[in-house]
Amino acid sequence: MTMWIDLTALPEIGHVETYRDHPFTVVEIHQHQTDSGLPLTLIEWQSECMTCGTPYGELTTLRSKPISRRCKECRKQPLPPTPAQQENRKRYAMRGRARR
Ligand SMILES: [Zn+2]
């Protein structure tokens, strides 16, 4: 699993991390305690959905796998196909027609 965030120190509020050309801004640091009494730091990130532009927030720990670049609503929808995928589909459809 690739780690998106692997921080040894707490980021400052306003710190920006970029994941796949998509900026995420630190808006809040939350200090929690786990049930076993261990300190747990959660970082609150703010970003704008790459599909619809809606701002959304995410919480991660200091080490985290990548956050989705899309808001919760858009995440339910499959990503639109890339031009290469569309081209493939067209070719596949043509082949199907030729066989008939
Ligand atoms: Zn969205």
Strand tally is 6
Order of SSEs, N→C?
EEEEEEHH
Strand content: 35-45%
- Poorly predicted regions are none
Shape: elongated
**Tally of DSSP helical segments:** 2
Please give a handful of descriptors for the protein shown.
4-stranded antiparallel beta sheet, two-stranded antiparallel ribbon, 100 residues
Describe the structure concisely for a colleague:
21% of the residues lie in helices and 36% in strands. It is an alpha+beta fold and 100 residues long.
Report on this structure.
The protein is α+β, with helices and mostly antiparallel strands. It has helices at residues 72-75, 83-99; strands at 5-6, 16-19, 22-33, 39-48, 55-60, 63-64. The protein has a 4-stranded antiparallel β-sheet with strand order 2-3-4-5, with no helix packed on it. Residues 49, 51-52, 54, 70-71, 73-74 line the site of zinc ion (ZN).
